[in-house]
UniProtKB/TrEMBL annotation, chain A:
Top-level taxon: Bacteria
Gene Ontology BP term (one): regulation of translational fidelity
Reaction catalysis annotation: L-glutamyl-tRNA(Gln) + L-glutamine + ATP + H2O = L-glutaminyl-tRNA(Gln) + L-glutamate + ADP + phosphate + H(+); L-aspartyl-tRNA(Asn) + L-glutamine + ATP + H2O = L-asparaginyl-tRNA(Asn) + L-glutamate + ADP + phosphate + 2 H(+)
Organism: Streptomyces agglomeratus
Sequence similarity: Belongs to the GatC family.
Enzymatic class: ligase
UniProt name for this protein: Aspartyl/glutamyl-tRNA(Asn/Gln) amidotransferase subunit C
Chain residue ranges for the region called Disordered: 70-98
Molecular function in Gene Ontology: asparaginyl-tRNA synthase (glutamine-hydrolyzing) activity; ATP binding; glutaminyl-tRNA synthase (glutamine-hydrolyzing) activity; transferase activity
InterPro entries in UniProt: Asp/Glu-ADT_sf_sub_c, GatC
Assigned EC number: 6.3.5.-
From TrEMBL, chain B:
Keywords: ATP-binding, Ligase, Nucleotide-binding, Protein biosynthesis
SUPFAM superfamilies: Amidase signature (AS) enzymes (SSF75304)
Domain of life: Bacteria
Name of the protein in its database record: Glutamyl-tRNA(Gln) amidotransferase subunit A
Catalysis performed (reactions): L-glutamyl-tRNA(Gln) + L-glutamine + ATP + H2O = L-glutaminyl-tRNA(Gln) + L-glutamate + ADP + phosphate + H(+)
Active site feature: 81 (charge relay system), 156 (charge relay system), 180 (acyl-ester intermediate)
Organism: Streptomyces exfoliatus
Summary of the function given for this chain in its UniProt record: Allows the formation of correctly charged Gln-tRNA(Gln) through the transamidation of misacylated Glu-tRNA(Gln) in organisms which lack glutaminyl-tRNA synthetase. The reaction takes place in the presence of glutamine and ATP through an activated gamma-phospho-Glu-tRNA(Gln).
Enzyme nomenclature, EC number: 6.3.5.7
């Protein structure tokens, strides 16, 4: 199993929106390399022909009727907002898609 | 008087309130006074809701005065892990990123507690986002183990267990993703139960790893745990993974403890390297006790259990990396770096950097890695196969036995700071508890003595098949009664007074 | 705006073969959101239709809307898809402020419906089969308002304001297999496909599929390959093309742009493109590089959907007549040609004509008014037929007035004009404008006498047996009565007065 490099950690941190500091990258890279080295043991079963279990319950088809339930009030919805304006969540400028 | 009240069991408190021998307000005040007196040292609580608790207590007393029938836990105080949403009370999940957040809605479990007239004293300390086994990962400082304040109370629900062991509350709520109810119970000499996955609603319980997380009862006795279990369990239409079936008869089982004629499994894989000698000794004595009480002991071999920890440390981080993405500084919680020039993207990244602690960041990165293209099959995919194999081994085992027993955790409480920067060493604390989370079945930890070498509590884990939670209580009550008779008193009485 | 090099359409097609993929998102018309009980009603106050779940609050959990699943299955069945026996939701992980959880609950490798097709009819009546890859369930995002920029656009904005009322509204994403072999008709196929899909969705009653309201949104993926080659070229993904005409224009533009890049020796960048309604162009959006990694995994907060086969058969039985089948039936009932039916469809007049017939008109006149007077009017105003201020019942009433002889065609047109101008019902317009056929025999008789007197030569010809010449006298009478006479009656009267009988 491959280990994990500092560059990979930096890439993962970007994907996960974590602005890691330089020393954190080094620190985490070392620790994660150890952890991944240990947990990679699971691949011992990779070639076994067993179905994956994503969930411990055998339930299916849990659905609700299409009936309106009370929403929060806008005040409640916005009560934890770091900033608000015009009854909307105010957020910094959004980059990317138009 | 106060001293007597705080040492009462929940069942006894409820009985006396119902009988009019105590008022709920008296009981609540006694516990608030205890918190006042000792919590500076223990630091079990992140938030104490003095006014709210007293108002709830008064409502119970008024209800009784009106002649209304009181429930089996009416007026009993409880310490709530700070992972459940509560209207009017902060919910931080032990994280800076949610500091000061007051949810606009109550978790289903909280609604159930209120409906049962349980008095919620406040919110307890925990490892940030329930990630940890020592409560050292709380952004608000560690909790001390009442047996030795320089040692960890277990985690992530160390606050809840410490509150019980320090007599700050007779009942507490925990959540168990990889052992976060059972391991703290073990190292504080208290009782903790992880119900069958889906037995207790997760609605309003801040998610760490959705397919593993399960809320459950913490108490000082098996019966108290059963009473609390019954109050919080049951189907919830707001949680799609909630089981739509009657709650197993846990209280009845706790009241009729016995192991006569039962077949009890001992798994080969739950001992060996890394297990403290005193823990193994107390465990072996427990097995002997079970045998003497009429149980038949069956040796079991579950080889895939050796892979459980590895599978867990892929599955839980994967799910958490997605569950915790919502903490982005846009709608609630902390926002850092919004100086009018930075983009939302940058503000999110700066906030998450500032708001999450090391362990949370580590797991987010690990999970992001395990789910990323090119690695998914080798890591997440294989981990899920391990999950299947472990489930099958449990199924096979439960064809032969009624319950399985093991040590709850390989060692007693370790000193605060000892494993703080050694994640792999920390993860070993959950060696025996994790297989149950992966398979979704039920388990309990209860005290089985003190390790001779350090005088600290050792936990006995009992594991039952899914939806057979009542077996935990039946066996647990029998073991508890036998030990108390042997010791002459509950184990917790041996704890040094605070 | 940067100027994009384009090759002429003909030159592009001479050199290359276009391959298209169309992704359509349909917002379902359920009462509540996909995973929570919040209302989906449009036009509510910002953030008034939100709850812990659709705001992605800590601790909240999703529960699947049964009608959302049912609608997805209906769409799948109508598209001749197989319906999964067992499928799951998956999380698509990426950060964006309009998406509260920073993952979209969607489906990944286990869509509820897959492997289907939709036959679409092109303008000349030819049928083109578009293969369907999959249809899956997911949820919509919130809406952002960009503040501080010049045009309300994202670029240059100082901050944004988010309203999550739309977040969590059920979406069905319908993805075609690569559409090959359409050649120069690719843009027409794209348009016809989206049009047919829209008809289908409406017929199923699962959504109004109003593109102008964002209830149906289309992404056009396009690549070119040199004639005779098999491998696909690099594709561009033009996002949010939100009218039928735009779908056609976007495909056409991208064909010409790709061709220009390729013929000049350049390479196509795999990227998203934005479509501009004003000039029909597309501009570069986000580059799709390897950094994009959605890390899909099965949604652990939901359990699998395993629709029972009996339920599916029940839904299949309940499917309405599919639009193309219905059009063929109507074509026969109305007795019109394929070509006429196609123009009725293109004009968006099918439902209006059906409703007018249901309101009592005969097929011919219903068709005549909607495809004539009203289509012209809608065209002039640049609106759709359904947006005209006249109902099928009004049109049926006008046609009844004509049938009874109370109005002639010319007057009927004036009545319609009045209704469109908001003057009221047809009867009210007749009343107000005094539009009635002159049927008073006295007044008409005088007009006829005057016409005969003033056109003695023609009158003689008619008396001599040239009955066809009567038209000129009828015209004179109509002119004298300013059109308010019944032409047939005038003709009878003239012939009677001249002592001639027809035939
Ligand atoms: Mg999509
Ligand atoms: Zn909602």
């Amino acid at each position: 199993m491959p280990g994990i490099t500092r560059e990979e950690v930096a890439h993962l941190a970007r994907l996960a929106r974590l602005e890691l500091k330089g020393e954190e990258l080094d620190h985490f890279a070392g620790q994660l390399d150890d952890i991944i080295g240990a947990v990679a043991r699971v691949s011992e079963v990779a070639d076994q022909d067993v179905p994956p279990t994503s969930h411990p319950l055998p339930l299916t088809n849990v659905m609700r009727a299409d009936e309106v339930r009370p929403s929060l009030t806008p005040e409640q919805a916005l009560s934890g907002a770091p900033a608000q304006e015009q009854q909307r969540f105010k957020v910094p400028q959004i980059l990317g898609e138009d | 008087m106060t001293d007597n009240i705080i040492k009462l069991t929940a069942a006894e408190i409820a009985r006396r309130i119902a009988a009019g021998d105590l008022t709920a307000v008296e009981v609540t005040e006694a516990h608030l006074a205890r918190i006042e007196a000792v919590d500076e040292k223990v630091h079990a609580f992140l938030h104490v809701d003095r006014e709210g608790a007293l108002a709830q207590a008064r409502a119970v007393d008024e209800k009784r005065a009106r002649g209304e029938k009181l429930g089996p836990l009416a007026g009993v105080p409880l310490a709530l892990k700070d992972i459940f949403t509560t209207v009017g009370m902060p919910t931080t999940v032990g994280s800076k990123i949610l500091e000061g957040w007051i949810p606009p809605y109550d978790a289903t479990l909280v609604k159930n507690l209120k409906a049962a007239d349980v008095v919620i004293l406040g919110k307890t300390n925990m490892d940030e986002f329930a990630m940890g086994s020592s409560t050292e990962n709380s952004a608000y400082g560690p909790t001390g183990n009442p047996w030795d304040l320089t040692r960890i109370p277990g985690g992530s629900g160390g606050g809840s267990s410490a509150a019980l062991a320090a007599y700050e509350a007779p009942l507490a709520i925990g959540t168990d993703t990889g052992g976060s109810i059972r391991q703290p119970a073990a190292v504080t000499g208290t009782v903790g139960v992880k119900p069958t996955y889906g037995g207790v609603s997760r609605y309003g319980m801040v998610a760490f790893s959705s397919s593993l997380d399960q809320g459950g009862p913490c108490a000082r006795t098996v019966l108290d745990a059963a009473l609390l279990h019954e109050a919080i369990a049951g189907h919830d239409p707001l949680d799609s993974t909630s089981i739509d079936a009657p709650v197993p008869p846990v209280v009845e089982a706790a009241l009729s403890g016995s192991v006569g004629g039962m077949r009890v499994g001992v798994v080969k894989q739950f001992r060996g390297e890394g297990y403290q000698a005193g823990v193994v000794q107390r465990f072996d004595e427990s097995v002997e006790l079970l045998r003497s009480l009429g149980a038949e002991i069956v040796e079991l071999d579950c080889p895939t259990f050796d892979l459980a920890l590895s599978a867990y440390y892929l599955i839980a981080p994967s799910e958490c990396s997605s569950n915790l993405a919502r903490f982005d500084a846009m709608r609630y919680g902390l926002r850092v770096g919004d100086d009018g020039t930075r983009s939302a993207e940058d503000v999110t990244a700066l906030t998450r950097e500032a708001g999450f602690g090391d362990e949370v960041k580590r797991r987010i990165i690990l999970g992001t890695y395990a789910l990323s293209s090119g690695y998914y099959d080798a890591y997440y995919g294989s981990a899920q196969k391990v999950r299947t194999l472990i489930t099958r081994e449990f199924e096979k085992a439960f064809e032969e036995v009624d319950v399985i027993v093991s040590p709850t955790t390989p060692t007693t409480a370790f000193p605060i700071g000892e494993r703080a920067d050694d994640p792999m060493a920390m993860y070993l604390a959950d060696l025996c508890t994790i297989p149950t989370n992966l398979a979704g079945n039920a388990a309990m930890s209860l005290p089985c003595g003190l390790a001779p070498e350090d005088g600290l509590p050792v936990g006995l884990q009992i594991i039952a098949p899914a939806m057979k939670d009542d077996r935990l209580y039946k066996v647990g009550a029998a073991v508890e009664a036998a030990f108390v008779e042997k010791w002459g008193h509950p184990l917790l009485e041996e704890a040094p007074s605070l | 705006m940067t100027v994009t090099e384009l090759l002429s359409y003909e030159a592009a097609l001479a050199e290359y073969d276009p391959v298209m993929g169309l992704e359509v998102h349909v917002e379902l018309g359920t009462r509540t959101k996909m995973f929570c009980g919040c209302s989906t009603e449009l036009g509510a106050e910002p953030n008034s239709q939100t709850c812990p779940t659709c705001l992605g609050m800590p601790g909240s959990l999703p529960v699947v809307n049964a009608i959302g699943v049912e609608s997805a299955i209906k769409i799948g069945l109508a598209l001749h898809c197989e319906i999964a026996e067992w499928c799951r939701f998956a999380r698509k992980n990426y950060f964006y402020p309009d998406m509260p959880k920073n993952f979209q609950t969607s489906q990944y490798d286990e869509p509820i419906a897959f492997n289907g097709y939709l036959d679409v009819q092109l303008e000349d009546g030819e049928i083109f089969r578009v293969e369907i890859e999959r249809a899956h369930m997911e949820e919509d995002t919130g809406k952002s308002l960009h503040v501080g920029g010049a045009t309300g656009r994202i670029h240059g904005a100082s901050h944004s304001l988010l309203d999550y009322n739309r977040a969590g509204i059920p979406l069905i994403e319908i993805v075609t297999k690569p559409i090959e072999g359409a050649g120069e008709r690719a843009p027409e196929v794209a348009k016809a496909y989206v049009a047919e899909l829209r008809e289908l969705i409406r017929a199923l009653g699962v959504s109004d599929a109003r593109m102008d309201k964002g209830q149906m949104r289309c992404d056009v993926n396009l690549s070119l390959r040199p004639h005779g080659t098999k491998t696909f070229g690099t594709r561009s993904e033009t996002k949010n093309v939100n009218s039928l005409r735009s779908v056609e224009r976007a495909a056409r533009f991208e064909i010409q742009r790709h061709a220009a890049v390729l013929t000049s020796g350049g390479t196509i960048v795999q990227e998203t493109r934005h479509f501009h309604e004003d000039d029909g162009s597309t501009t570069s959006g986000r580059i799709k590089d390897n950094a994009e990694d959605y890390r899909y995994f099965p949604e652990p907060d939901l359990v699998p959907v395993a629709p029972a086969r009996e339920w599916i058969e029940e839904l299949r039985k309940g499917l309405p007549e599919l639009p193309r089948v219905r059009r063929n039936r109507l074509r026969e009932e109305w007795g019109v040609s394929e070509l006429d039916m196609q123009s009725i469809l293109n004009a968006g007049a099918v439902d209006a004509i059906v409703a007018t017939i249901e309101a009592g008109a005969d097929a011919a006149s219903a068709r005549k008014w909607w495809m004539g007077e009203l289509a012209r009017n809608a065209n002039e105003q640049g609106v759709s037929l359904e947006e005209l201020a006249i109902t099928p019942a009004d049109v049926a009433r006008v046609s009844a007035l004509v049938a009874s002889g109370d109005l002639n065609d010319k007057l009927a047109r004036q009545v319609i004009e009045g209704v469109l101008a908001g003057e009221g019902t047809p009867d009210a317009v007749v009343e107000k404008r005094g539009l009635k056929v002159v049927s008073d025999d006295g007044a008409l008789g005088t007009a006829v006498d005057e016409a005969i007197a003033g056109n003695a030569a023609i009158a003689d010809k008619i008396r001599g047996g040239k009955v066809a010449a009567v038209g000129a006298l009828v015209g004179a009478v109509m002119k004298a009565t300013r059109g308010q006479a019944d032409a047939a009656k005038v003709k009878d009267l003239i012939l009677e007065k001249l002592g001639v009988s027809e035939g």
